[in-house]
Each structure stands twice: as C-alpha cells, then as structure tokens.
Amino acid sequence: MMSDSVRILNANLLSITRIELLQSLKRGVLVTPNLDHLVKLQHDREFYDLYQKAEWVVCDSKILYLCSRLLKKGIPEAIPGSSFFTAFYQYHKDNPDCRIFLLGAMEGVAQKAMERINASVGREIVVGAMSPSYGFENKPE
C-alpha cells in the first residue's frame, strides 16, 4: 500500500489514483469516506477506531478532493466507491485469485448483484452474498 496521505478531519486519505489503487489493492479493508463519514468521525469513537484499522482509506467525494487541493499536498483524484467497485471486478475478471463477497443491501439484492457480476465477467468472481437485516451486528446468533 502507498503511504502518502492527506489528513482531513480525522481521516487519513491516501494520495492515490484509481489505476494505482486497482494495481495495488490485493487484500484488506477499503473505506471510501464521504462528508457524512467525516462528521461521524468527529464524535463516534467506535467508527473512528474502525477507520484506523482500514488498510485503504480513499477519497470518495469530489468535495473532499477539492478541499484537499487547498492543502499543500492534495489528493490526485476522487475515487467514488460505487464506480470503483465496477472497475475493480472488471480489472480482476481474469485473476483467479481475486474473490469477492458481497455484504449488505436489501434482501435479495446482493444475491442478484452477485449473479449479474458473475455473468458479466464470465466466472464466479463473487463467491457469496448476504443481505442481513439492519442491525444484524448487534444480534447474537
């Protein structure tokens, strides 16, 4: 992982381009902070601690990108998570070592996304999908 970063409101945003991220991201947790996340990072200690554990913290927002340009060392580009995900699985479609698990979405949506993604890349790159109910992390099972 690249070590250059820009700190904005308790988030260390990697100074990385989309292509560098595609080439470098082999494993780990990727978070794409937006303005709502930055606000939450100011007052939610658990959320802050989770962010500190993420290996990849990448600028998701054009607004954050523009703010970074006001600093001495700006971020080269915003990398929205929604479009990066498509680029990621397309980039790795022929890499048999790349496997993805989808977690989240309304019931049935993750499963449908898994089917569509696998069909679009011609292999089972998405190996599983789960759409748990809201607040599942707080329910012992």
Automatic annotation (TrEMBL):
InterPro entries: WecG_TagA_CpsF (IPR004629)
Signal peptide: none
Superkingdom, taxonomy of origin: Bacteria
Keywords, alphabetical: Glycosyltransferase, Transferase
Gene Ontology MF terms: hexosyltransferase activity
Classification via PANTHER family: PTHR34136, UDP-N-ACETYL-D-MANNOSAMINURONIC ACID TRANSFERASE (PTHR34136:SF1)
Protein name (record): Glycosyltransferase, WecB/TagA/CpsF family
Organism of derivation: Paraprevotella xylaniphila YIT 11841
